[in-house]
Amino acid sequence: MSPKTHTPGTVAVGSPLRLPCGVVLPNRLAKAAMSEQLADITGAPSQTLTRLYSAWGRGGAGLLITGNVMIDRRAFVEPRNVTLEDERHLEQVGNWARAGAREGAAMVMQINHPGRVAVGPLYRRPVGPSALRPQAVGFNLRKPRALSSDKIAELRRRFVRTAELAVTAGFSGVQVHAAHGYMLSQFLSPIANQRDDRYGGNAENRRRLLLEIVADVRKTIGPTAILSVKLNSADFQRGGFEEDESLDVALALEAAGIDLLEISGGNYEAPAMTGVMSDSTREREAYFLRYAEALRARPRVPLMLTGGIRTREFMNEVLGTGAVDLIGLGRPFAIRPDIAAGLLAGEREPQALPIAPRIPLPGADPINSYLQLAWHAANFRRIAAGAEQVSGPGAARTLAAAGLTVTARALTQF
């Protein structure tokens, strides 16, 4: 993969970015993935979801990455995630892709399997790399089944099939989700993966499945579609997936020919990606910048940094130094859909944006994290209905509404 072609100091948020596959992003701002939970009962993208992405498509970002799209309708991250495992919803998926891309943004579908974590106790028994429960509040009721070799092969086929369908429907590419404690992240983790076969036991074996899936997907979607991976810089758990191992995985992904690596961190047990943890990374404006800087000392895959970045000056600073190539924003898009256009027009920062209320449940970081995300998800319907800026409900209403909504959706999912 060729090195970056810009000179440090000359790149800013409005600069175009050419990815190795040849796709040119019109600017350096991306809407990062947020789980919308706006599929209909069959798993198809709803009209509300399509309208939401139409609003985000008009909002100025060069890249829109969808929230979780499930590769298997038997395994959801949350109720009402979109599922794509065959052609039955291909027309609706195509409408979704065109809605986001109408103003020039590239649309990338994030594809995922939850593995041993899924919201709510009503799901069928989960699966994972090993038969080990996650140690997180609300996720320790069900012991997962360890995947057999045959089921791992099926998992590979499902990732490939969903990627193929996404590109066929009109998406510019896919992002393989290997972060935040979901299935592929579980395989990378020494805590979740205690297998003694070719998919576990050492770092090389733990990353084998991810690299196989990336190779399979690239072969299927071809060299001109975007292939991205979302990877944890670390799990933020003692004995878990650490930064040194993550750097090795990133280099292996570069060698495998990915076009974009999005850097994140944490999981349901240690939700660093949402900013609710009392971790030293919260003291920095960009939660995972140090990792990006460490990776930049090695061969260079295009990098997307997401988490905690809020000012235009800081965005231009990290882009200008060459530490990263693309800035990902998540929750600001759930408050103001045209935040990218404002930043590109020269706004100093998203000054008037409200922030999510703190959900003060002491000692319950995973629940607080989920309720933070639920606060933003409550705004998606308002944006789809035409709101230009939304403040969302307060903390108490979020707590009550999230419980009712998840329960109702779970009861009607299957």
From TrEMBL:
SUPFAM superfamilies: FMN-linked oxidoreductases. It holds the Pfam family Oxidored_FMN. Gene3D superfamilies: Aldolase class I (3.20.20.70). GO terms for molecular function: FMN binding; oxidoreductase activity. The keyword rRNA-binding does not apply. Keywords: Flavoprotein, Oxidoreductase. Residues 23-340 form the NADH:flavin oxidoreductase/NADH oxidase N-terminal domain. It comes from the Bacteria. PANTHER family: BINDING OXIDOREDUCTASE, PUTATIVE (AFU_ORTHOLOGUE AFUA_2G08260)-RELATED (PTHR43656:SF2). This is NADH:flavin oxidoreductase. It comes from Nocardia terpenica.
